[in-house]
Every structure is written in C-alpha cells, then in structure tokens.
Amino acid sequence: MNNKHRYHNGHITPADLVNGAAALQRALAWLDQHDFKPLMADVGLYAKPSITLVRSRHCEWLKARRGAEDLGVQQLEGFRARRRWQCVVEGCFVEWTEEI
C-alpha cells in the first residue's frame, strides 16, 4: 500500500480533510461493530486517513479477511521487535503491530 502524502500544490485541501474525517467515522464505526479498539487516528498525514489499533485476537481475522500487508519489522530501542501490518477498511489505512 502506498502511504505517500497527498498534496495539491503543496497543501491538503479543506475538502480532503472533510472527506478524510467522514471516511474515519465510517471506518471507526465498522471497527467498533467488530470489537476492535482504536489507539489513534489521523487525517491528512498519508494518502488515506489512518487508524492504529490496539493489538487483539481480532487482528488475525483482519489479516485473513482484509488482505493485510506485512509492512516489515519495527525495532525501537528498549522494546521487543514488532511486525507491522496494514489493511484498508472503509477507505482508511488500518495498522497494528504484533510482537515477534
């Protein structure tokens, strides 16, 4: 998936933000119906609005049903290595990590 910034002549338009916020609302409602817990959400930083989930057993279901993409390993100093996963729900990137 492509997380490149989406700029129009060097900036994000107000319409981009409004549309992104609407997509976030739809995605958060869908995730809530399926017992996912969001950790944070953002509009305007990436090509699509993004949501980071708290890791749960339901993430395996997302991997299988939504074709989650392996984004690689994240190694932060002082923390165990984690594998990052991402899929698209209702037009938003949805990301989570799992310990490896």
Question: In summary, what is this structure?
Answer:
The chain has helices spanning 14-33, 58-66, and strands at 38-42, 50-53, 69-74, 82-89, 92-99. The chain is α+β, with helices and mostly antiparallel strands and 100 residues long.
Percentage of β-strand residues: 25-35%
Strand order of the largest sheet: 1-2-5-4-3
Overall spatial form: globular
The class by helix and strand makeup works out as: alpha+beta
- Low-pLDDT runs: none
From N to C, what is the helix and strand string?
HEEHEEE
Mean pLDDT: 87
Please give the radius of gyration in angstroms. 14 Å
Q: Major β-sheet, in short?
A: 5 strands, mixed
- Total E-strand runs: 5
The helix tally amounts to: 2
Helix content: 25-40%
Query: What is the CA–CA distance across the termini?
Result: 22 Å
Structural commentary:
The chain is of the alpha+beta class and 100 residues long. Helix content is 29%, strand content 31%. The chain has helices at 14-33, 58-66; strands at 38-42, 50-53, 69-74, 82-89, 92-99. It has a 5-stranded mixed β-sheet with strand order 1-2-5-4-3. A hairpin with a 2-residue loop joins β4 and β5 (92-99). It starts with 13 loop residues before the first helix and ends with a strand. The mean pLDDT is 87.
